[in-house]
TrEMBL record:
It comes from the Eukaryota. Transmembrane segments: none annotated. The lineage of its organism: Eukaryota, Fungi, Dikarya, Basidiomycota, Agaricomycotina. This is Cupin type-2 domain-containing protein. It comes from Mycena alexandri. Residues 88-154 form the Cupin type-2 domain.
Length: 176
C-alpha cells in the first residue's frame, strides 16, 4: 500500500516572525510533503507545526537568529500540553486506528467526505466545510467513499477527562 499517492498537491506552509528590529517578516515558506503516520504506510499526514506548551513561546526563532525548518514531532499522536497543527490525506476505503488523545481538537473537512465513528458505534458523516470539536473521545475516522478526503486538525493539549475517579488517558488501537 505504500505506493498509494494522494491526488492533492503538497501543503505549502508559510511561517511569520519578526526581524531583529521587531518588524513582521516571513521566516519560512516551504512545501510540506506527506509522510506515513506511525507504522502505517497508507495514512499520510502533513505535520505543519508543533508547540511544547501553552502559552506557546513564539519569539525564540528570530530572537536567536535562526529558524529550524524541521517540525519537532514526538512519537505521541499530539504535543501533550502544547499544540499540533496537522493535515491528513485520507485514501478511499481507509479507517484510522481507534484512538483517544488528551486534547481539544478542531477539525475541518477540506475536501471529500469522512465519517467520525465513536466507540459505541455512533457515526457522523462530515462533508467539505464541516467542522468537528473533538473533546478527548475514543473514535476512528473512516473514508467509505471512492474519493480521497483531506482534513485539517489543530490539537491543543488538555487536562484528562475524569469520570468517577478514572482518568481517560491517551489510547491507540490499530485496526486489524
Amino acid at each position: 500500500m505504500s505506493s498509494i499517492k494522494a491526488p492533492f498537491p503538497p501543503v505549502r506552509r508559510v511561517v511569520t516572525g519578526h526581524t531583529s528590529a521587531g518588524k513582521s517578516t516571513v521566516i519560512a515558506d516551504t512545501v510540506e510533503l506527506a509522510r506515513p503516520w506511525g507504522n502505517e504506510t497508507v495514512h499520510r499526514v502533513h505535520d505543519l507545526h508543533y508547540t511544547e506548551g501553552s502559552p506557546a513561546i513564539i519569539d525564540t526563532e528570530i530572537a536567536k537568529g535562526k529558524w529550524v525548518d524541521e517540525i519537532k514531532m514526538h512519537p505521541e499522536l499530539v504535543s501533550g500540553m502544547g499544540s499540533t497543527f496537522r493535515c491528513w490525506d485520507v485514501p478511499p476505503g481507509d479507517v484510522s486506528p481507534a484512538h483517544r488523545t488528551v486534547t481539544l481538537d478542531y477539525a475541518i473537512v477540506f475536501k471529500g467526505t469522512v465519517i467520525l465513528e465513536l466507540e459505541e458505534g455512533e457515526r457522523v458523516t462530515l462533508n467539505e466545510g464541516d467542522t468537528v470539536v473533538q473533546r478527548g473521545t475514543m473514535h476512528t475516522w473512516r473514508n467509505e467513499t471512492t474519493e480521497w478526503a483531506k482534513v485539517y486538525f489543530v490539537m491543543l493539549g488538555a487536562q484528562p477527562i475524569e469520570i468517577e475517579g478514572k482518568k481517560l488517558e491517551e489510547e491507540l488501537h490499530h485496526v486489524e
